[in-house]
């Protein structure tokens, strides 16, 4: 089975996104399609805030769940908050991933999450699979 994922993250902290994608890519017997919007994606220069929100919604629509990196920076990110709102409106499961060695995390992301997991490949994949 291939899982459709939207991985929400701050473009300013894209190194954590890259590490998460690498973790998932190395997991044996786990296949996924990544619908997220990385910093180098053409959607980045889409135009107005409204156009960007519409583009993110189109990207998120086919995802079975939304993964949000729960670093404290997420609390202050306008776009991560918009992605939470979109995910909730579309009825998407939200999985919060607490970054590795993180002392502080985003209470906004964790309150919105259906499940909170640590920075551990097995825990993240188990949450995606819904176990």
UniProtKB/TrEMBL annotation:
Which InterPro entries does the UniProt entry name for this protein? ThsB__TIR-like_domain (IPR015032), ThsB_TIR-like_sf (IPR036490)
* Limits of the Thoeris protein ThsB TIR-like domain: 6-102
Q: Which SUPFAM superfamilies match?
A: Hypothetical protein MTH538
- Pfam assignment, any one: ThsB_TIR
User: What is the official name of this protein in its record?
Assistant: TIR domain-containing protein
Q: Which organism is it from?
A: Xiamenia xianingshaonis
């Amino acid at each position: 089975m291939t899982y459709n994922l939207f991985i929400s993250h701050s473009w300013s902290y894209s190194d954590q996104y890259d590490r998460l994608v690498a973790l998932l890519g190395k997991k044996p017997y786990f296949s996924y399609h990544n619908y997220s919007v990385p910093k180098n994606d053409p959607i980045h220069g889409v135009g107005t805030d409204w156009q960007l929100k519409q583009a993110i919604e189109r990207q998120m629509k086919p995802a079975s769940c939304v993964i949000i990196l729960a670093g404290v920076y997420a609390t202050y990110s306008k776009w991560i908050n918009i992605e939470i709102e979109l995910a909730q409106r579309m009825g998407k499961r939200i999985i919060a991933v607490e970054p590795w060695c993180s002392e502080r995390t985003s209470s906004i992301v964790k309150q919105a999450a259906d499940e909170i997991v640590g920075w551990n490949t097995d825990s993240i994949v188990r949450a995606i699979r819904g176990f």
